[in-house]
Design brief:
The chain is an alpha+beta fold. The chain has one domain: 2-Layer Sandwich (Gyrase A, domain 2). The chain has four helices and four strands, in the order ααββαββα. A hairpin with a 2-residue loop joins strand 3 and strand 4. It is globular.
Length: 113
């Protein structure tokens, strides 16, 4: 995970390639706590983070929002009492790009910051 979390997102244009089947397998191993969900034919990375209360969930959400702005790559975020569901995918290509795995790894690091 650490090598992914040290990478920067690249600009993802509409013609950028989605990850291949083998890349999906390899990159998924690097963010093992994330699952690939298929919604309306679009692969997305998703993870649910658990917290002791709403305040801690919101603090995590705010850190994630700041990270997303810095990297200019934005996830789906559902903040509830005691949990935050984060979903990464590249809207422009309607699927998964290496950027999504980079951001998943960076999101995991927020737990330690």
């Amino acid at each position: 995970m650490s090598e992914l979390s040290e990478m920067k997102c690249e600009a993802c244009q509409i013609d950028a390639p989605k990850v291949t089947g083998q890349e999906l397998i390899d990159l998924s191993k690097m963010v093992a706590d994330w699952t690939v969900e298929n919604r309306d034919g679009i692969n997305q990375l998703e993870r649910v983070y658990k917290f002791k209360n709403f305040k801690l969930a919101m603090e995590f959400t705010n850190k994630l929002a700041e990270l997303a702005e810095v990297e200019f790559h934005h996830p789906g975020i559902l903040t509830e009492w005691g949990k935050v569901t984060v979903t990464w995918w590249s809207h422009s290509i309607k699927g998964l790009h290496k950027n999504d795995f980079i951001m998943a790894a960076k999101t995991d690091q927020l737990l330690n910051s």
